[in-house]
Design goal:
Blueprint lengths: L1 H17 L4 E2 L13 E8 H4 L7 E8 L8 E8 L2 E8 L9 E2 L15 E5 L2 E9 L6 E7 L12 E4 L30 E3 L7 E3 L5 E3 L8 E3 L29 H11 L8 H7 L3 H51 L1
Parallel strand pairs: 1-2, 9-10, 13-14
Antiparallel strand pairs: 2-3, 3-4, 4-5, 5-6, 7-8, 8-9, 11-12, 12-13
Length: 333
């Protein structure tokens, strides 16, 4: 970054001293090999040179220090309504490298380079480093830290560390899945936890479990607290509609009574001791409760049939009683 700023200052001074004329080459995009030990100032159509930013036209400086690759790269600066942009290329190259925006006092922070960049404010530096291959073919992992307690050997494309390493990801846009590791301390650990006070933390362990309000999750998601949700979906295998099949052996109420007397709870329903010890599996409990409801429905249907039979018998008894009363009256006469 310091080298780029020094180069800008040098070329600006050269422009004032020599009184260079700005050429109108708006439609041309001359490669690095088209320049030889010279400094040029040109009026360019922005799209012609493929530079980002805004506006139709731009001003461009070209600095070609030597005749071949032994003198290093040739350099270009482009000035347009979107800011100042820089690119370079070897002296013998037929194409330029990609444009990069140069940081100014009121522009968005864009840092790039082979060895990274560093901004400092007070005693707490903000650093961003990454590895960029010397042949210009690709980027390696980047790392950011807010003080000296960081890592210079990242294992991911973006890794934060420090006493307070907060990372906010709004939208993950890419060709594949994104992995985010969150940690309280600047160490690489498969067991990490985040958030504020202890007891209100989210915890991730190396078994792939997530805990909210607990640092010892024993399931994929363990919550020590109340869950507020509009709906909960549970995937189950099987459902107790077998109760309504002809082959189902419905226990008698006498058998149900005997089980309650011996066990103190319904069959296939956990006791209070089991619930206190192991909790309740909602899916399995709903299945067992539905089975009891279906059995109760069958008992009710049976009782309804028995009641109808008793009603018919009551009618017969009533009819016999009326006939007997008539006979008794006749005998009294």
């Amino acid at each position: 970054m310091k080298t780029k700023i020094a180069m800008i200052a040098f070329m600006a001074i050269s422009f004032v001293v020599t009184g260079q004329v700005v050429r109108d080459t708006r439609a041309e995009n001359t490669p690095p090999s088209g320049y030889n030990r010279e400094v040029k100032y040109d009026f360019k159509a922005r799209e012609a040179v493929g530079v980002p930013g805004f506006g139709t036209y731009s001003g461009m400086m070209t600095f070609a220090p030597w005749v071949d690759n032994s003198g290093g790269h040739h350099h270009q600066l482009n000035f347009n309504a979107g800011g100042i942009y820089y690119r370079n290329g070897l002296a013998s190259a037929t194409t330029w490298g990609n444009w990069s925006k140069i940081l100014t006092s009121n522009s968005d922070i864009v840092l790039e380079g082979i060895y990274g960049a560093e901004l400092k404010r007070g005693i707490y530096p903000f650093k961003m480093h990454w590895s960029y291959s010397d042949d210009g073919t690709g980027y390696g992992p980047a790392w950011i830290h807010t003080n000296t307690r960081g890592t210079t050997h990242p294992t991911m494309f973006l890794q934060t560390s420090g006493n307070s390493a907060n990372l906010r990801v709004n939208d993950a846009i890419g060709l594949g899945p994104m992995t985010v590791e969150l940690g309280k301390y600047p160490v690489v650990d498969t067991n990490t936890w985040v958030s504020g006070a202890v007891g209100e933390n989210s915890y991730f362990n190396n078994g792939g479990n997530v805990g909210i309000g607990t640092r010892t999750p024993d399931s994929k998601l363990a919550v020590n607290g109340t869950i507020h949700s509009k709906e909960v979906k549970v995937d189950l295998v099987g459902w107790p509609d077998f109760v309504f099949e002809e082959s189902y052996n419905l226990p008698t109420l006498k058998e149900v009574e005997d089980h309650i007397k011996r066990k103190g709870h319904l069959k296939n329903i956990p006791s209070v001791k089991e619930v206190v010890k192991n909790g309740v599996l909602l899916g399995e409990m709903n299945k067992n409760l539905l089975q009891k409801i279906e059995e109760l429905t069958l008992y009710t249907i049976q009782q309804e049939k028995e009641i109808e039979k008793l009603k018919e018998k009551n009618k017969e008894i009533k009819s016999l009683s009326e006939r007997l009363a008539k006979l008794e009256k006749l005998l009294e006469k």
